[in-house]
Design a protein that fits this description.
Blueprint lengths: L5 H12 L35 E6 L8 E3 L2 E8 L2 E7 L6 E8 L17 E3 L2 E5 L4 E6 L5 E6 H5 L13 E3 L2 E8 L2 E6 L6 E5 L10 E5 L2 E7 L3 E5 L6 E6 L14 E3 L2 E5 L6 E7 L2 E8 L11 E3 L2 E8 L4 E8 L5 E5 L5 E6 L2 E6 L3 E6 L7 E6 L10 E3 L2 E5 L3 E6 L2
Antiparallel strand pairs: 1-32, 2-3, 3-4, 4-5, 6-7, 7-8, 8-9, 10-11, 11-12, 12-13, 14-15, 15-16, 16-17, 18-19, 19-20, 20-21, 22-23, 23-24, 24-25, 26-27, 27-28, 28-29, 30-31, 31-32
Length: 409
């Protein structure tokens, strides 16, 4: 049999991994898990009070972002002592179905007792991971439970400082999670049954969510665990690359999602460790640049536009955040806005949209020449930790008590 050309194999693998509809936002950080939206023709002429809100809805607790696919909006939140997976009509906010189960999770620091992990819509299924490690597969059309298991119990994993928060992904036909157990740092599950397909590494779980991209000529699942980088083959679990990258102090998190571009991998954390750009060289990775002065992100994942990165530098909990533009190849800081709010960014239609922790929606130019803000409007009360979703001209965003649908088209 003639081997399949590698470019075609890569294309087919990604086609099976990513959703086909460009208007969908099916998981954490969008269809390509890097904060990029393919939408165009958005309305940037906002009224004085900001873009119109199509509808709003009172919701429960949690930091899990909304997701949209196949004409369905899925919200994951906590109401009372139940974690609730709720399906809504994205145009109206009306309920379609709800799946509920009891939870015993209590936040050690009293921040929030709700789920942190953004759901994943893949085909006709929704996958959710609760704050106490409850992993579920749910039928998107009906809300029926297809299977469920508790990862902390099954793999003797620790819940971490703030509960389980990594958002799963699908690659190579497997559902992948940074579980964090001994011998089960990363675990692959059969999406149809929930049965374990393979497990690899001893890496404890971080708060980062994995990316899927081509690295070193192969499509790999790229994780930033509690210990650092793990890039592995999604079909088999074979580890291809590792790179230690974590803070020296225990009271810390690795939370930003890795970014991959042209085969290079960008990692960023805070707590005196900083950022690193890694380049495959055979079976090893070499550091192109690394420092704690360019773009050290504590929670929010940066986005790339062209040859430049945009993101939040500094400690959110120390109120020392700067919004920055940094050159990908060198780490050179092109501009910096001091005393900024922690901001989740989406690159779309030639601009950058940002949702700040205070609940403000901002739009500014993706321009390394300088920060040029074009609009700002209050859409939520805050604090806002959940990542928003942008689908079919609508921005869906939530805080600790309300979900809003903002019309951008």
């Amino acid at each position: 049999m003639t081997p399949m050309p590698r470019p075609l194999l890569v294309f087919l693998t990604l086609a099976l991994t990513l959703p086909p509809c460009r208007a969908d936002w099916p998981g954490f950080l969008g269809p390509t898990r890097d904060g990029q939206s393919a939408e165009t023709g958005l309305n940037w002429a906002w009224p004085k009070d900001g873009p119109p809100v199509a509808w709003s809805k009172e919701v429960g607790r949690g930091w899990a972002g909304p997701v949209v696919a196949g004409g369905r909006l899925v919200l994951f939140h906590r109401v009372g002592d139940e974690e609730v997976v709720e399906c809504l009509d994205p145009a109206t906010g009306k309920g379609v179905w709800a799946f509920k189960y009891p939870t015993r999770y209590r936040d050690d620091f009293g921040f929030d007792d709700g789920p942190r992990s953004t759901p994943l819509i893949a085909g006709d299924r929704v996958f959710t991971l609760g704050a106490n490690g409850d992993l579920h597969a749910i039928d998107l059309a009906t809300g029926a439970k297809l299977w469920g298991r508790n990862l902390l119990a099954d793999y003797k994993a620790d819940k971490g400082f703030f509960g389980v928060a990594t958002s799963p992904t699908i690659a190579g036909g497997k559902l992948l999670v940074n579980v964090g157990g001994k011998g089960a740092g990363v675990v692959a599950f059969d999406p149809a049954t929930g049965k374990e397909a393979w497990k690899a590494t001893d890496d404890p779980a971080g708060y980062s969510s994995p990316a899927v991209a081509e690295v070193g000529g192969r499509v790999l699942a790229v994780f930033l665990t509690r210990n650092g980088l793990v890039a592995l083959e999604p079909e088999t679990g074979k580890v291809r690359y590792t790179h230690p990258w974590r803070p020296r102090i225990r009271e810390s998190v690795n939370a930003a999602t890795p970014l991959v571009w042209k085969g290079d991998i960008f990692l960023t954390v805070s707590y005196g460790t900083g950022a690193v750009l890694l380049r495959p060289k055979g079976d090893e990775l070499e550091e192109v640049w690394a420092n704690d002065k360019s773009l050290s992100c504590q929670y929010n994942s940066p986005v790339r536009v062209g040859d430049f990165l945009y993101g939040c530098h500094g400690r959110v909990d120390a109120r020392a955040v700067e919004l920055r533009c940094v050159e990908w190849a060198t780490g050179a800081v092109k501009w910096s806005v001091p005393r900024a709010e922690a901001t989740t960014l989406i690159a779309v239609d030639g601009s950058l949209l940002g949702l700040t922790e205070a609940g403000e929606l901002i739009r500014f130019d993706a321009d390394p020449a300088g920060y040029k803000e074009r609009a700002r409007a209050v859409v939520l009360t805050g604090p806002v930790r959940a990542a928003p979703a942008l689908a079919d001209g609508r921005l869906f965003a939530r805080d600790g008590g309300k979900l809003v649908c903002v019309k951008l088209k």
